[in-house]
Prior knowledge:
By secondary structure, the protein is an alpha/beta fold. It has one domain (5-303): Collagenase (Catalytic Domain) (3-Layer(aba) Sandwich). Helices cover 25% and strands 17% of the residues. It has helices at 5-26, 47-50, 149-160, 187-190, 241-247, 253-269, 293-303; strands at 41-44, 60-63, 84-85, 121-123, 126-127, 136-141, 168-173, 197-202, 216-224, 230-240. Strands 3-9-10-8-6-7 form a 6-stranded mixed beta sheet. Helix 3 (149-160) crosses helix 6 (253-269). The model is unreliable at 1-8, 16-58 and 63-76 (pLDDT under 50). It binds zinc ion (ZN). Residues 67, 70, 80-81, 263, 267, 273 line the site of zinc ion.
Amino acid sequence: MTLGPQRRRRRMLRRLAELDRLDARSASVDSSPWRPPSQAMYAVPPVARRRRLTLLPLVVTVGVTAGLLWVRTAATDQIDHVASLIPVSDARPPLAADATLARLAPQPISPGGSSGFTFMMENDLGAAAYDPCRPLHLVVNGEAAPAGADTILRDALAMVAPAAGLHVVVDGPTDERAQEKRPVVDRGRYGNRWSPALIAWTTPASDPRLDGATAGIGGSQAMTDATGRLRNVTGMVHLDGPDFTQMLTRPEGRTEAVAVVAHELVHLFGLGHVEDDGQLMGARYEGQAGLGDGDRRGLARLAAAPCARGV
Ligand SMILES: [Zn+2]
């Protein structure tokens, strides 16, 4: 069914409102009223009242920008990315053994141009980003992977990780399956550390958010560090294996597959959608094969975060 723009917008806003409430609950914040949506961003106000470490007014905007999903051009109001905040009261693992005091990959250069970008989550000190001074660890569940999945992931990482100034390490395979709610620390599986980000080739049966036209979903969970900055500490990219298998039968399928995985990885890193189909983070897939200037500027902003402290 193709929905008209007005109706689609109403449905999208409703959907966003639902997600915002979910996010507020998952962050264990209080139930004070939140502001109605302005564009696609929200203010989630209650966190500041619970914090003791800083006097900074902390307004966290959580980007659950709706997307017309990527992959198929058919109009849909499905969401392909989510971000959430881990409450500061939650126990956190000790400082990662491989955290350093200097960035591990060169700071990317922010290009000229005028295209925009959005963040998945931000506060007054900046956007939620991964620590550039420690490796970003990934594990891969290939249960429903299409043929050639490893090189698709490799090529997608080569496209976006340098632009994000991140040193990404693929630790290897995991038997952890995709699920909507994932433990941020899984001592039995990964030891006493933040769970590595999970790249899961899966199916809509495991993650119903992949139903319909959604071929991938990506995002991260953030925590406030000792300086008040939001730090992404773990995340996931769930990829609809059967969708990719079908995609790869088309002549341009592999280029598209790499672009979709790259798009979801950029959600994992911390960028949301823009209404610009010339950008990889455009809400619709219109044949983008690589990063645009807005994508690069957004990733460079994420990469500018100083080394993390206290997470
Ligand atoms: Zn997206």
